Amino acid sequence: MRIGILGTGTLAVGLGAAWVRAGHEVLVGGRSPERAKAAADRMGGTAVSPAEAVTGRDAVLVAVTWTGLAEVLRSAGAAAGSLAGTPLIDPTNAVRHGVGELLPEDGRAVAEHVADWAPGAHVVKAFHLFAADQWAEGKPEVTVAMAGDDQSALDTVARLVRDAGGRPAVLGPLRRARQLEEVAGFVIGLVFAGVDPSSAVPRVEVAA
Ligand SMILES: NC(=O)c1ccc[n+]([C@@H]2O[C@H](COP(=O)([O-])OP(=O)(O)OC[C@H]3O[C@@H](n4cnc5c(N)ncnc54)[C@H](OP(=O)(O)O)[C@@H]3O)[C@@H](O)[C@H]2O)c1
């Protein structure tokens, strides 16, 4: 697949490296060409401008902090439709440090804001719950819960989840993304309280 990544930080490199290992072509762009080059070198991809990173891609990951999301999408031409028709993966955790409260105060999901900033893009919330090193080689398989409205985009992201070593699960349409984002806030809040979050949810045996 031809994958684009906006963002040059920890998650961009972690997922980019996993997708390169799986045989995908990865272009990476951010606001700093130097940091894009460093990230591309670490993941085995190619550094380009933000606009080039989203052009002609089968899927795009936007891996920047909540405060930089609107700006990086603008620099990639998203408002003018550069991502229209493209599966756009949003892994953002916009949470208040330490307590895990969600930051968007209008009650909407970050992923819904992303959909506003990238008209026509097929936004899929995914990859927000696990730390970037989860996608290093040899880690035990985990389930990546996703939300999105476009079935073909969900299928594409499901393939990218498998190629990174995860197991995809669709929770529902994009309006369920806020729920997925709240789960991250719940996990982060308990971790800061010194509690293992997996001890705070029931263990349920599900028939295969
Ligand atoms: N790291 C993880 O384990 C993990 C796991 C799940 C989800 N996430 C989510 O993934 C996203 C990225 O996290 P990260 O850990 O990779 O962060 P990071 O290492 O701190 O990197 C942040 C990235 O955001 C960019 N950025 C910040 N403000 C920007 C702006 N105004 N315009 C353009 N780019 C801007 C930074 O660019 P500069 O280098 O130029 O500042 C950098 O490329 C976050 O939303 C985070 O919640 C991270």
From TrEMBL:
Pfam families: F420_oxidored. InterPro entries: NAD(P)-bd_dom_sf (IPR036291), P5C_Rdtase_cat_N (IPR028939), STEAP_metalloreductase (IPR051267). Residues 2-93 form the Pyrroline-5-carboxylate reductase catalytic N-terminal domain. The keyword Thylakoid does not apply. It comes from the Bacteria. Keywords: Oxidoreductase. The keyword Oxidoreductase applies. This is Pyrroline-5-carboxylate reductase catalytic N-terminal domain-containing protein. The lineage of its organism: Bacteria, Bacillati, Actinomycetota, Actinomycetes, Pseudonocardiales.
